[in-house]
């Protein structure tokens, strides 16, 4: 049992924290918020090996454990970073790796390729098997028909991985296949996301793809999707932890400096105790992230996945609401840093399943 | 005891419903439900319709052109308007300034300003909060120095809601630094066209810009714009705050929000069932509804006591706290209900907002409303201030 | 719309409150806690017309509205009274009234007869239809077989009303019948209840009853049981409200007098704000009781029943836990008044359905 | 980072399990699960078994006859004992007084008292709290006045757990009224057989009488029973409180309580299903379990840091607050789980408690445990005191 970081991990953590503190200026963040990511910073991250840290050596990286992922994303969260490392790295990259496409993965790790996963569909909520989009094979390749919802990073992606059904019906885990699509074949109307970044709705209206667009084995994509999303959920949870820490630091500072009724508001016992409860819950979130990181490659993965994402969702709500309340009016203004962090933290509950969704699945697993 | 409306009250409710059926423009209710903001003209249109009926100022005595409704009638009117999706009556002139002028204003001020509020000649906004003086109003610093027939005002107000539409602002200003902080405050009416007044929007977390900073640089205000006595503004401000607390519980908003949430939960697919049939979702929603059913009755008890002439005490504070908690929980659960479609940033302030929304219509406002309504527990006396009031009135400490 | 009490109701309330404040001495309460009720006080209540206030004029009473019931039980709760007015009055008396047994009801209203309802069975929890006890008719009357759980007031009852199945199976609403049983036919081992009073487990092992033991029509008892339990639930909810008020008063006094760290603990902002939340929730409980009282004879009865008992259960937990916490050590001692009140208030959630039980039924009704 | 035990730690865990399998008397675990209280003899029997193995004082250095375990080993021992249903090690001698004597006691005190603790010759209890000085220990008033070779002690202690079994008590007494309140306190060892010591039970809300008042009337205590320096007792008391906080999170108790709750929920019929399949019940239970999974890891982090020589700071306070909340919620949900059978009053203190319980076995303790365990958030520094510690260490105010 050992909760200390290895020397390599600590070096990466220190380096990344320092880099982001310097590079992620207000201007860079604004750029990333509006345009999905900031090219310079993306290159900087790649150069530091941050993308490579998400993959094991056999896939061309030098990390890939749950703790590596947690470390990287906690720092990105702390900086309020917008860059789509989840989409390009863990979702897109993870699926490329599962399909053995080392050629493309190399470009991803080098920071030269952006990816997006077009999976969720309108009305599909968080159910990974609820895909109705179809891919029909004919002599010349594949024809895709269907709709995809809130495809994060699609407007900036060099390739989009699209899930579609080659057999079965929405809700089946069998029959899902993945396709690698050049976005130039699609019409993408970008829109902004709360907390920054870009996404698109995508309609496939008989889009044709060459035969080699198929990624991995036809009909067998569910397990790879599940594994990639589990790692993405760990990343998002760790990002949430970093956001919580940044918000806590901001709020603590505010409590010390803001005066009302003749004293710093941090002198008010009621705010002290509520802040203590916030701190306790953030420690719970930290342990939950550790639990998931430590079990991401074990049989207990899903139990911890559901427990962690449920807890993160609940704590995120508490942290957002209490920090805004303690700030008062300034907490709901766009200009102040808290707004950006609070929005990103709020959105954590809307990807890969919210607290209620994971609660129900935790109960089901425990009853099984 | 009797929980039913009297026959007279039922008749009034029916009259309100008939009026709303006939006169409330569909265009305005659609805007309220959709993603588009009400414009200044929209508000003015609705005020004029109400004024024509004589119901714009339900809380004003008939002598001042109001409807002279009792608390139960006002409650019925508010509930029915909310249920019908009518725009909210902009409170600054009607609900806030009106009662102050009626109680403390000069005859000239009453004769001049009250009709202009009803007719829509003036759009008022409120100059109370300052940076550094949010819940702690007594510490405000914006100052007015007497100079002949004028006060010269310098300083800054903030959180001025809809100030961008206003031509007039009522302000608390410091006219003396002697004595206790609240003793040197005066209540001043300022024409926003006066040189030296500047309004700057504050962009909020949901992208909207409904609140403003108002800056005063050597703004000359005629002394006849002082309400009541110099340095007595604190008394008038407290009186105003009491009146602001009409409908403080927001039962109508909560009911409308809950109805909307239920519609969403019936529409959203959640695996093989509708979201409303997800027991964990249903449990959270039921707890809110059960809380709201009780609070609605607490509200009626306070309304009923007010109609019988009793002044509400700590009950207002209790309604404020519970009411904001319920409304914020409805906002939070609505955000949860729309699932991944909470993620697109769909603000009125963002270009292209008049395009079709991303995802289902009902998702467009969910995240913005959640974020924006965090303010409910902050403004109008934060919930922390309310809890202290409740404790003091109960513990007598 | 009118939330004022009528003059008669106010007189009853004032009289009852005064009477209990005087008569319910610590010795009288101890007597009632240990023996189920105190005879003198029971007679006093009957003489004041408190039992009669639970019944309408056509049943020999002079009240019987939801507000009458709420008024009486709020005062009993405020005094921490143990006397089994729910069992004798609303359950037993209500079922006698429904069966038209005015002869016995007269004795109940006069305070001369104590009753108990033997209905719940082991494993039956709060489900009114889950009765497996059977009553078989033969030429000479009825034979009862089965077990009843936690029959409150059985050891002191002059008559016990027993529910049994004359047809159908546990869970059916049809087929339930009621029987009036002389407790001398039974072996009752009394045991004490948390918060005071006595109960028994009852085993019917072929107990024979005369033909006229049947109360009402055979097989048709469900609706009467439901109505009686609805009124009993209103009474229990109102009692809970009274208990909350008594606890609040005790706690408020304690906060004003108990000193720690050099000042009354009520000066600590944190306790002030938590006490404010307690007060807010007690007002919610008051409104919930009013809602149920106002709808007890309407079509909306069950909606308000479930809403009110759910809310009461949740608020009771908050009030008990916060009041004990604010008292510190003395709050968990038997001797101090709070103990008795807190125990009674805690037990409210264990009769006629707990908060979770009513939540589920509220949801089902709303979905219907 | 690695969440697994090392091979050595696993081997130790297996050794503990084998020991418990062999040596823990079934009679004692049955008592723990049933309705019967452990007697003094039961505790002494278990202490003797542990002492024979050398594991009674896991936290003591080997030089004093302890096992010299590090924090992780102590954690493993505690978790395994709790899981096996072993009686808790009575903390007053082993966990509390022992470390104080080892750090601040004289050689004579160490040589005399420490072996007697291990052998079971002395049963210690704690004299800290007084009426009027609960969480505010510095305000205590029980006084010791020097008279020749003796202190004469007068005053009262309260909440003295298991004092009815004890022959010795360690007390905080006031030896000076000068300076700050905490500066005049001394740490005194008192033989409870001394004339003038009186123990009176306090009956608790669950009917049990495990705590006591201890009264001192002109009790003469030899000066050699003073630990360390006069008026320095506050320092020793704080040191003791730190040690008391071993296992402050109560993860073992919580896990055992949750297991028991699950067994009950699987046994309880709820309409046509088992209670564990009631989604609303299952949701409350899952939330507790999810919280516990996280807290167990927080606890391991603190334990691991302690094993590496780091002194826990505000983390102890966080574990105390969260740990008591979780345990109390388990108690509350267990009470809920047993349904109507929470109503019978089934106390160890009530005559006839050795008869068969009313209703299912598992119901007998539910209400008593819920009520009694309200104390968890009160004693050992109330959760309010802990939150203040957390806030101060974080806000630096």
Description:
The complex is a heterotetramer, with 2 copies of chain A (368 residues) and 2 copies of chain B (397 residues). In chain A, the strands form 3 sheets. In chain A, strands 1-4-5-8 form a 4-stranded mixed sheet, covered by helices on one side. A 4-stranded antiparallel sheet of chain A has the order 2-3-7-6. Chain A is an alpha+beta fold and 368 residues long. Chain A contains 11 helices and 10 strands. Chain A has helices at 7-23, 26-35, 39-48, 66-78, 85-98, 102-109, 222-257, 269-295, 301-327, 337-347, 355-367, and strands spanning 115-118, 134-138, 141-152, 159-165, 176-181, 189-192, 198-209, 214-215, 259-260, 263-264. Chain A is globular. In chain A, strand 9 and strand 10 (263-264) form a beta hairpin. Chain A folds into 3 domains: 7-113, Butyryl-Coa Dehydrogenase, subunit A, domain 1 (Orthogonal Bundle); 117-220, Butyryl-CoA Dehydrogenase, subunit A, domain 2 (Beta Barrel); 223-367, Up-down Bundle (Butyryl-CoA Dehydrogenase, subunit A, domain 3), CATH 1.20.140. Chain B has 397 residues and is α+β, with helices and mostly antiparallel strands. Chain B folds into 3 domains: 7-89, no CATH class; 124-233, Butyryl-CoA Dehydrogenase, subunit A, domain 2; 245-393, Butyryl-CoA Dehydrogenase, subunit A, domain 3, CATH 1.20.140. Chain B contains 12 helices and 10 strands. Chain B has helices at 7-23, 26-33, 40-53, 71-84, 91-104, 107-119, 233-244, 251-267, 279-307, 314-337, 366-372, 383-395; strands spanning 124-127, 143-147, 150-161, 168-174, 185-191, 197-202, 211-222, 226-227, 269-270, 273-274. In chain B, a hairpin with a 2-residue loop joins strand 9 (269-270) and strand 10. Chains in contact: A-B, A-C, A-D, B-C, B-D, C-D. Chains C and D meet through strand 3, strand 9, helix 9, helix 10 and helix 11 of C and strand 9, helix 9, helix 10, helix 11 and helix 12 of D.
């Amino acid at each position: 049992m050992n909760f200390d970081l290895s020397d390599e991990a600590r070096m990466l953590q220190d380096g990344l924290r320092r880099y982001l503190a310097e590079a992620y200026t207000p201007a860079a963040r604004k750029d990333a918020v509006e345009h999905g990511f900031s090219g310079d910073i993306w290159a900087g991250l790649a150069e530091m090996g941050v993308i490579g840290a998400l993959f094991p050596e056999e896939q061309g990286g030098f990390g890939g454990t749950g703790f590596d992922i947690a470390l990287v994303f906690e720092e990105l969260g702390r900086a309020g970073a917008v860059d789509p490392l989840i989409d390009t790295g863990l979702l897109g990259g993870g699926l490329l790796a599962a399909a053995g496409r080392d050629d493309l993965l190399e470009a991803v790790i080098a920071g030269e390729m952006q990816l997006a996963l077009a999976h969720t569909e309108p009305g599909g909520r968080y159910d990974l098997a609820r895909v109705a989009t179809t891919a029909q094979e004919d002599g010349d390749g594949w024809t895709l028909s269907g709709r995809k919802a809130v495809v994060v990073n699609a407007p900036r992606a060099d390739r989009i991985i699209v899930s579609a059904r080659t057999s079965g019906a929405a809700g089946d885990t069998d029959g899902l296949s993945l396709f690698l699509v050049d976005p130039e074949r699609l019409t993408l109307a970008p829109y902004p996301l709360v907390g920054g970044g870009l996404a698109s709705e995508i309609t496939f209206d008989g889009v044709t793809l060459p035969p080699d667009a198929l990624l991995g084995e036809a009909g067998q994509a569910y397990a790879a999707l599940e594994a990639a999303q589990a790692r993405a959920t760990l990343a998002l949870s760790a990002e949430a932890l970093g956001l919580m820490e940044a918000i806590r630091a901001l709020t603590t500072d505010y409590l010390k400096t803001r005066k009302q009724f003749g004293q710093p508001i941090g002198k008010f016992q009621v705010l002290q105790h509520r802040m203590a409860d916030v701190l306790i819950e953030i420690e719970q979130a930290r342990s939950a992230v550790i639990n998931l990181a430590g079990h991401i490659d074990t049989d207990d993965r899903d139990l911890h996945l559901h427990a962690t994402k449920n807890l993160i969702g609940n704590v995120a709500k508490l942290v957002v609401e209490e920090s805004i309340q303690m700030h008062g009016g300034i907490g709901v203004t766009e200009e102040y840093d808290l707004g950006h962090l609070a929005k990103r933290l709020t959105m954590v509950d809307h990807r890969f399943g919210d607290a209620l969704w994971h609660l129900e699945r935790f109960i089901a697993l425990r009853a099984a | 005891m009797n929980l039913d409306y009297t026959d007279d009250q039922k008749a009034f409710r029916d009259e309100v419903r008939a009026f709303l059926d006939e006169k409330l423009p569909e265009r305005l209710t659609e805007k309220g439900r959709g993603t588009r903001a009400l414009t200044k003209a929209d508000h003015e249109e609705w005020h004029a319709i109400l004024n024509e009926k004589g119901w714009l100022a339900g809380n004003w005595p008939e002598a001042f052109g109001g409807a002279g409704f009792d608390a139960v009638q006002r409650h019925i009117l508010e509930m029915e308007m909310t249920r019908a999706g009518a725009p909210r009556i902009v409170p600054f002139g009607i609900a806030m300034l009106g009662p102050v002028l009626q109680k403390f204003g000069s005859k000239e001020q009453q004769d001049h300003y009250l009709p202009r509020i009803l007719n829509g000649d003036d759009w008022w906004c409120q100059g109370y909060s300052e940076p550094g003086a949010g819940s702690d109003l007594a510490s405000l610093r914006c100052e007015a120095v007497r100079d002949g027939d004028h006060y010269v005002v310098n300083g800054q107000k903030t959180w001025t809601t809809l100030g961008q539409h206003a031509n007039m602002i009522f302000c608390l200003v410091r006219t003396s630094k002697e004595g206790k902080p609240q003793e040197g405050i005066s209540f001043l009416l300022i024409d926003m066209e006066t040189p030296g007044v500047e309004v700057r929007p504050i962009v909020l977390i949901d992208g909207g810009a409904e609140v403003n900073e108002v800056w005063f640089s050597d703004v000359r205000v005629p002394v006849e714009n002082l309400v009541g006595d110099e340095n007595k503004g604190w008394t008038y401000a407290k009186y105003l705050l009491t009146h602001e607390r009409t409908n403080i519980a927001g039962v109508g908003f909560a009911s409308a929000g809950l109805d909307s949430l239920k519609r969403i939960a019936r529409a959203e697919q959640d695996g093989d069932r509708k979201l409303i049939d997800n027991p964990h979702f249903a449990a959270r929603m039921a707890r809110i509804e059960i809380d709201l059913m009780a609070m609605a009755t607490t509200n009626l008890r306070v309304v009923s006591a007010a109609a019988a002439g009793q002044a509400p005490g700590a009950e207002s504070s209790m309604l404020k706290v519970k009411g904001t908690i319920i409304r914020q929980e409805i906002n939070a659960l609505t955000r949860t209900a729309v699932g991944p479609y909470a993620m697109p940033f769909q603000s009125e302030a963002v270009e292209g907002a008049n395009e079709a929304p991303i995802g289902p219509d009902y998702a467009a406002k969910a995240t913005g409303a959640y974020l924006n309504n965090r303010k409910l527990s902050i403004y109008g006396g934060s919930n922390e201030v309310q809890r202290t009031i409740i404790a003091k009135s109960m513990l007598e400490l």
